[in-house]
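User: Some background: our group keeps a shared notebook of sequences we're curious about, and every so often someone picks one and asks for a predicted structure to add to the entry. Today it's my turn. The entry only has the sequence so far, pasted here. Could you supply the structure so I can complete it?
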Amino acid sequence: QVQLVESGGGLVQAGGSMRLSCAASGSVFSVRTMAWYRQTPVDARELVALITGSGRTSYADAVKGRFTISRDNAKNMLSLQMNSLKPEDTGVYYCQSGAFWGQGTQVTVSS
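Assistant: Of course. Here's the predicted structure to add to the notebook entry:
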């Protein structure tokens, strides 16, 4: 069993930055692939970024060069640093690992 709790969402102006965090508990964190997804009212939930247990990362084309996913295995924490935010980045951001999802945190980017 894995519990995931996101934090750090809110309202930011376009061009600004925001950092999301996900606290994980339960199973062995360090070997799990972790990911951030986002969902908008009109689009399906989409993968934003993922990081494997060995630290390999992958990003959606829409966020490459602007977002950075990272993990701190000692603290069981996953992070997403988001820079140069755009209105289209608005959505609910979810932390995910395997079959487990967090409750989501709202990110709103105003134009």
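Suggested note for the entry: Residues 8 and 20 are 5 Å apart (CA to CA). DSSP finds no helices and eleven strands in the chain.
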